[in-house]
Amino acid sequence: MFLLRCLVAAAAVTGSSFAQQAQTPAGDAPVKVVVVKGLSGVKDNTGGTLAIGDGSMHFAHEGIKSDLATRSIEDVVTGDDSQRVIRGTAGTLSWFAPYGAGRFLALFRTKLDTVTIKYRDADGGLHGAIFTMPVGQAAVIKKDLLAQGAQTTVPEGEAKSAATTPDSKEKQ
Prior knowledge:
This protein is an alpha+beta fold. The protein is built from 6 helices and 7 strands; from the N terminus they run H-E-E-E-E-E-H-H-E-E-H-H-H. The chain has a single domain (25-152), classed as PH-domain like. 33% of the residues lie in helices and 34% in strands. It starts with a helix and ends with a helix. The model is unreliable at 1-27, 161-165 and 168-172 (pLDDT under 50).
């Protein structure tokens, strides 16, 4: 009976926290992201917050801040990906576990969204940056960037239709 009560209480707490997360729109508040690579002045795999407004994209992590004018962004591409649940040293060492246990652990993955941008710096140099974030945030960030003046080579409508229709080569 005690176990049942604990499970019901845990389900209630978990359900309410998911409901609160779903109600928070990403456009109003900064989004927690990881800069995988490419943002000038920021080390690779740095976690922080990304906010879009006032014609620029603001990334902040503790003392590190990076601002990028949205007009300098030439391309914004979104995607979805997954990553291993057990990462780092423990994830690497798990490959040496006996009886294929390491490979089994590698099957456990979490989903995430990606945003890749191509931008020009003040001197005209071409750069790129890759961000990862929780599922469902990439489309909102892309929409906000486009509203602030960024450009894209793949409009949202074309991206969805290209993903659902097979190539003409496959039809033949």
